């Protein structure tokens, strides 16, 4: 089932990038998914702190919104794209680039459609 694939992808992302994010100063990470997108966030500070977030769309929702989403790539392909984006962001932090100054910093790229 699709929701099982999303849950498994989220678990893999958190396991793969959580420890690395903590070593560069993040306070936590979170992966999420829904019927059209898979996303990952890196949090800095406590509640209300800074967040870097990126997501990859893998399906489109047609009108009316209660119709099923129409996938254009697999959850696994979206996970691979998202892994590249998260890896690039963490590599920048490891190279000394400071985290976002405030608010939400969205990563862009990948398969956004």
Could you say which overall geometry the principal axes of the C-alpha atoms support?
A: elongated
Alpha carbon gyration radius: 15 Å
Please tell me the overall pLDDT. 86
Helix amount, in percent?
A: 25-40%
Could you please describe the fold and organization of this structure?
The chain is an alpha+beta fold and 113 residues long. The protein has one domain (2-106). Helix content is 37%, strand content 26%. It has 2 helices and 6 strands. It has helices at residues 2-23, 75-94; strands at residues 28-33, 37-44, 50-57, 59-60, 70-71, 104-106. A 4-stranded mixed sheet has the order 1-2-3-6. The longest helix is centred in the first third of the chain and has 22 residues, at 2-23. The protein is elongated and about 45 Å long.
Features:
113 residues; alpha+beta; four-stranded mixed β-sheet; two-stranded antiparallel ribbon; 2 helices; 6 strands; 26% strand; elongated; disordered C terminus
What can be said about this structure in brief?
The protein is an alpha+beta fold. The chain has helices spanning 2-23, 75-94, and strands at residues 28-33, 37-44, 50-57, 59-60, 70-71, 104-106.
Topology:
Layout: H1 2-23, E1 28-33, E2 37-44, E3 50-57, E4 59-60, E5 70-71, H2 75-94, E6 104-106
Parallel strand pairs: 3-6
Antiparallel strand pairs: 1-2, 2-3, 4-5
Helix pairs in contact: 1-2
């Amino acid at each position: 089932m699709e929701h099982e694939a999303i849950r498994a992808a989220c678990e893999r992302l958190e396991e793969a990038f959580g420890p690395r994010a903590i070593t560069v100063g993040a306070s936590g990470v979170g992966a999420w998914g829904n019927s059209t997108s898979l996303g990952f966030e890196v949090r800095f500070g406590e509640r209300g702190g800074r967040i870097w977030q990126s997501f990859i769309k893998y399906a489109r929702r047609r009108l009316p919104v209660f119709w099923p989403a129409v996938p254009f790539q697999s959850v696994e392909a979206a996970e691979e794209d998202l892994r590249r984006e998260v890896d690039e962001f963490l590599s920048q932090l490891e190279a000394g680039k400071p985290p976002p100054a405030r608010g939400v910093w969205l990563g862009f790229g990948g398969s956004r459609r």
